[in-house]
Amino acid sequence: MDRDYALPLDVAELARVALMSPGHFSRSFRAAYGETPYSYLMTRRIERAKALLRRGDLTVTEVCFAVGCSSLGSFSSRFTELVGESPSAYRARAHDDGAAIPACIAKIRTRPVRRRTAEDPLLG
Questions:
Q1: Which of 77, 92, 95, 122 has its CA 20 to 30 A from that of 31?
Q2: Which structural domain range is residue 72 located in?
Q3: CB-based burial of residue 46 (10 Å sphere; 0-12 exposed, 13-18 middle, 19+ buried)?
Q4: DSSP reduced 3-state for 122
Q5: What's the number of domains the chain is made of?
Q6: CA dist 101 to 8, 55, 105, 109, 110, Å?
Q7: Residue 57: inside a domain, yes or no?
């Protein structure tokens, strides 16, 4: 999923490769990573979208489709949820402060983090 983030998510295929049922795969994935396979994939997509938006040469719509999202509205909502600002606002502000940081460090420091809520079953 990290490498092929732009492809559609197929939990059944991932489960088949892992020699598990789709339900067992999803539960095991959530236990290991703290989020569902879909949520993990969206986090990777938003992570890549942030890098593309920092470049500034693509529109938000182009970035949305480049990272594998098919709905601009869903992409914008998820981006805002994870990053704390809209894709347009993120693209518009200066990102010069990270220019001297190696890409591998910038990726770690700018990784979107899913915020836990009181309703989250993992907090129970």
A1: 77
A2: 11-109
A3: buried
A4: coil
A5: 1
A6: 31, 15, 7, 10, 11
A7: yes
